[in-house]
């Protein structure tokens, strides 16, 4: 057990072992018998050994005054502990601790007698022969035997420890299996409860159907009575018809006298009928041509949108607000387009200086410039009307039956909510994309009504807070009960998704939309963060279900327009001390970052044409499943801050948007019948 022992401990251990020795008759005493002798017997037995040692001279004398030569023999643990206790009484607690530590770290090694200079390990015997048995004074030999026995005991202890460890592992596996079985039992109980509820519902439906059958039988008997009455009335009408026929014959005779007078005007009437038929044919031809032109307009409009890309990315930089520091020159640059300054900007350059890097001379390293290219870039001076002008044609695609999804992405305080909903105060110049998009749809629908199209609009507005869906249009006692909302299929085999317990409000004018937006602002979850005094801590999803019908031609179309204001993304600071409020913000931030990461994975999976798209990994992507697939048109606004302190977050947002801009999700398809 102990690798080495110090010379001082070896000598002291040998001295302690020599004191109780007595000479045994057999000259090779067992360890048990040696430990049971009395001290007086040990002293008597030791006297002949001392005399023998004196008679052998200086060459055979056993000495303990050579601390420089370490002993290779080991002392059993019990003997070492006794020695350590005796030494500790003389040298104090500090020395006893060191000796005990040395004894604990020793490892057993084979007992090899060491021959010191000038001495011999074994006294010479008469005639030059070695003794056949261990003499009683051969303490090292006896100690070697004890060490061998101690080694066997330790091996046995190690074997028992391994068996104990195996039994503990088996016990732990059994506990885990019991826990898994308990979880499975609870799951099966939940399934049983659902099946029972479905059975009760089926019984209730059967009862309702029976009531309907009885009601239909009553109506059938009523209808049979009506049929009999109508038959009677038919007989009466036939009698009346015969009377009228006779009167008609008399009238015809009178008309024959006036045919001569009407013959002169028949030619004129015939000519007028020809002109009317020609005009009706011309009108039908023009209507057909107008319908063809409308279909051609829709086809060209969709082709134009496809050329621009079914997934497009716009970048918008918000202006510097009052009280914020002015960014250094050159932080954000907007290079001109291929056609010069007259072309709308499509590129953005962001400079970032890293204080951790430096040149060999000690001077700071030059800033690193990052260049990005998007479908359109809006500098800080761009207004809300300029932004909507770029997406107006995309919004109009929803009337043609194409699902459209527009969402704003970026860090907290970068202007996402301002872009989607607008600013406070009701200023028309500050209106966001949601009110402008609905005003545009109402206007275009009114124009298409002259061509025989009729449209209906149904709006809903929900938020996803900590992976929980809540209705932003809830009023009265339904406020704050968004946890009861769930995303479900509209019906068996249907691909349409609905939110249970959420309000779906029909809208037909701008005032109704403004009232809904005002109610949603009051119900939305906001909180103060390090980047924004009033930050949106949830994803808000405004969806407009559009249904169109052309009754004369039997055409129908339907699509949804989804306008999403994503929650602000912030990176977590692991060294920040968290209080109760900060822990809540941390949980919100983790949920936000998880759903945004899932959104990126869904877009990448659609771009790579993967067989499985992880829509259900997040409530946000599951709700927008029909607006993100290959049959939809998608537009992403990446909003960034112009401040230097937000360069790191802005760079992360631009990199994510650049990846999305490189994706191709396929050709959009209209939902027409």
Name given to the CATH architecture of one domain: 3-Layer(aba) Sandwich
Count of β-strands: 16
Rounded to the nearest angstrom, the radius of gyration is 49 Å
Low-confidence stretches: 1-131
Percentage of β-strand residues: 5-15%
Q: Could you estimate the helical fraction of the residues in percent?
A: 40-55%
Q: Give the termini separation.
A: 87 Å
Structural class: alpha/beta
Looking at this structure, what is the CATH superfamily of one domain?
Kinesin motor domain
| Basic shape | flat
Number of helices: 14
Series of H and E elements: HHHHHHEEEEEHEHHEEEEEHEEEEHHHEH
Broad CATH class of one domain: Alpha Beta
If you had to describe this structure to a student in words, what would you say it looks like?
The protein has helices at 7-18, 31-35, 39-56, 77-91, 93-104, 139-308, 384-396, 416-421, 433-448, 510-523, 580-607, 619-623, 625-628, 647-661; strands at 311-317, 332-333, 347-352, 368-373, 376-378, 404-410, 453-465, 468-471, 487-489, 497-499, 505-507, 526-527, 535-536, 539-550, 555-565, 633-640. A hairpin with a 2-residue loop joins strand 7 (453-465) and strand 8. The chain has 673 residues and is of the alpha/beta class. Residues 1-131 have low confidence and may be disordered. The protein contains 14 helices and 16 strands. Among the domains are: 215-284; 309-318 and 370-662, Kinesin motor domain (Kinesin, 3-Layer(aba) Sandwich), CATH 3.40.850.10. Helix 1 (7-18) packs across helix 4 and helix 7 (384-396) crosses helix 9. It holds the Pfam family Kinesin. InterPro entries: Kinesin-like_fam, Kinesin_motor_CS, Kinesin_motor_dom, Kinesin_motor_dom_sf, P-loop_NTPase.
